């Protein structure tokens, strides 16, 4: 997987009529995208909302963060009013300050740098595709999200200029959350480290001292929570709660919920298409296992049960699943019978009766989507992201519990000082046995998860994932960058 950061289905191109394919070649052979407002003699400093542009575009790369060069196979032409063709050189994330709500910041993903452009464009189409509503009328363009206006543009010709007040409040600086010294940026960083955990839960972690190793001023959370997190918008959905699932177990492993998700749209790097989720009803601790087929699920379930029983010093007493054949079969029936486990199933075609499992699946998938969106990693990394999401969920607050699932099951308060942003740049130490005296002592990769014993899972450009303990991270780097040469470390399976 040489280009391990290129998303398989690019968010921007799929959103506005693109086919999602990346192509190289001559300028005439490249796919063309419309940005009608390009052209002109002088540059306009304001950002403009444009209903004709298929991309967010700027001429000023200094306003972006997480910037990377556009690869040859990603190049395309952008057509201006005069028919001229322009090619982007870089792409990154731009943070705009709202000119409507004080303190609110809006992140625009996939903003392309076109050096010959004379105007900075916000694509109304992309905003619409990504959950915002653009209302045009009375000489204004209102960008609305979740019922509130977050940006306002004034009509200038065929565009709508984003204007700011006399104090000069304009585009925010390009410093990332991790690089700033402000307390609200610290809160945003922990939000990302914890798999885009809701700010309400983040505030609760601080207020109730649910973890150790997190240095965060509680007063910063209000400012951070007012900022729109674009990956969260793309990844999370608003829907009603799942119904309660009956009595609550009073002891660990007294009741275990299980479910299966799949087949997933992409096969993971480890060859998996399915994920089995296991939830302890009493403590809220969850576990996941990845398989290529449903036939292999039984073996994974037995391994999870054995591991949980060894930790808890107790036996699983009751299991609740749907009526899927991966759970209702002779092999699983014999296993449950031999272990003295009561197996309860839902009524046919009513998966909502297994509400605890469905709720867990939704939480894990939302975290997974958010991390993949922010990291721009390909969908083959879904298993790594989901395993990380499960790890983070266990050390985060859950509804109705005074402690984290980790503490409830393990008996110890989790230390989260080791957490880093999924998908950030990672520099893994190369042992001297694997290099000569002149070769680099570190190899650059991408952080994609955690291993037992304080190890990190690092993805390299040859597609291998290996575990390392001596790693330095750059949490401001979320984008494609040059990778080092291959090494001979053993390729890892999907995380669990």
TrEMBL record:
| Keyword rRNA-binding (UniProt) | no
**Per the UniProt record, which residue ranges are transmembrane?**
none
Would you tell me the protein name for this molecule? Integrase catalytic domain-containing protein
Identify the keywords attached in UniProt to this record, alphabetized. Answer: Hydrolase, Protease
In which domain of life is the source organism classified? Answer: Eukaryota
Q: Which InterPro entries match?
A: GAG-pre-integrase_dom, Integrase_cat-core, PolX-like_BBD, Retrotran_Ty1/copia-like, RNaseH-like_sf, RNaseH_sf, SH3_retrovirus
Region of interest (Disordered), ranges: 1-29
Is Protease one of the keywords UniProt gives this record? yes
Q: Name one GO molecular function term.
A: peptidase activity
Source organism lineage? Eukaryota, Viridiplantae, Chlorophyta, core chlorophytes, Chlorophyceae
For the biological process aspect of GO, one term held by this record is: DNA integration
Q: Pfam families recorded for this chain?
A: gag_pre-integrs (PF13976), Pol_BBD (PF22936), rve (PF00665), SH3_retrovirus (PF25597)
Segments forming domain Integrase catalytic: 248-413
């Amino acid at each position: 997987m040489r280009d391990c950061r290129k998303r398989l289905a690019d968010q921007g191109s799929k959103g506005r009529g693109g086919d999602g394919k990346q192509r190289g070649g001559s300028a005439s052979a490249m796919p063309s995208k419309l940005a009608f407002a390009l052209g002109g003699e002088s540059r306009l400093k304001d950002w403009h909302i444009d209903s004709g542009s298929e991309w967010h575009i700027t001429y000023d790369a200094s306003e972006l963060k997480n910037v990377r060069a556009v690869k040859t196979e990603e190049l395309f032409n952008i057509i201006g009013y005069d028919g001229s063709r322009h090619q982007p050189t870089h792409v990154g994330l731009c943070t705009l300050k709202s000119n409507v709500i004080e303190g609110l910041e809006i992140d625009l993903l996939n903003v392309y740098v076109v050096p010959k452009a004379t105007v900075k464009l916000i694509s109304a189409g992309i905003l619409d595709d990504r959950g915002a509503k653009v209302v045009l009328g009375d000489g204004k363009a209102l960008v609305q999200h979740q019922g509130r206006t977050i940006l306002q543009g004034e009509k200038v010709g065929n565009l709508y200029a984003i204007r700011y007040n006399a104090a000069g409040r304009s585009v925010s600086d390009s410093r990332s959350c991790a690089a700033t010294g402000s307390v609200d940026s610290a809160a945003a960083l922990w939000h990302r480290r914890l798999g885009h955990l809701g700010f309400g839960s983040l505030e609760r972690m601080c207020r109730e001292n649910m973890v150790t190793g997190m240095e965060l001023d509680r007063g910063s959370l209000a400012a951070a929570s007012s900022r729109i997190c674009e990956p969260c918008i793309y990844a999370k959905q608003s829907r009603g709660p799942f119904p309660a699932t009956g009595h609550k177990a009073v002891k660990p492993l007294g009741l275990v919920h299980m479910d299966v998700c799949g087949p997933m749209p992409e096969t993971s790097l480890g060859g998996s298409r399915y994920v089995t989720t296991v939830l302890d009803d009493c403590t809220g601790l969850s576990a996941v296992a990845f398989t290529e087929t449903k036939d292999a699920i039984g073996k994974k379930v037995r391994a999870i049960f054995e591991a949980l029983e060894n930790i808890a010093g107790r036996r699983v007493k009751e299991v609740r699943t749907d009526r899927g054949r991966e759970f209702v079969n002779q092999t699983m029936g014999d296993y449950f019978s031999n272990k003295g486990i009561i197996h309860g199933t839902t009524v046919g075609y009513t998966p909502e009766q297994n509400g605890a499992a469905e709720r867990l699946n939704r939480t894990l998938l939302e975290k997974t989507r958010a991390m993949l969106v922010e990291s721009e990693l390909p969908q083959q990394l879904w298993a790594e992201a989901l395993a990380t999401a499960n790890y983070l969920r266990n050390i985060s607050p859950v509804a109705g519990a005074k402690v984290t699932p980790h503490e409830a099951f393990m008996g110890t308060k989790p230390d989260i000082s080791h957490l880093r942003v999924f998908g950030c740049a990672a520099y893994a130490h190369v042992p001297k046995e694997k290099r000569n005296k002149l070769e680099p002592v570190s190899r650059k990769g991408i952080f994609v998860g955690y291993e037992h014993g304080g190890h990190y899972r690092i993805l390299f450009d040859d597609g291998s994932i290996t575990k390392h303990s001596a790693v330095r991270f750059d949490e401001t780097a979320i984008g494609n960058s040059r990778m080092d040469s291959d090494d001979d470390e053993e390729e890892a399976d999907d995380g669990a």
